[in-house]
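Re: the request from the purification team.
They wanted to know what the chain is likely to look like in 3D before they choose a buffer screen. I agreed to run a prediction and write the result into the notebook, where they can find it.
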Amino acid sequence: MRVLIAVTHLLGAGHLTRAAALARAFAAAGHETALVSGGHPAPS
């Protein structure tokens, strides 16, 4: 299966962190996985 996960973060990286965990799990299960992130950079 091909999986695309798209995340837009505005106030922090929490959603991106969780989406990355999902992407890693899909990839570990053998799926072709892409994680796309956009939005403003998280404050440092």
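For the purification team: Strands lie at 2-9, 32-39.
Please add any questions underneath this entry.
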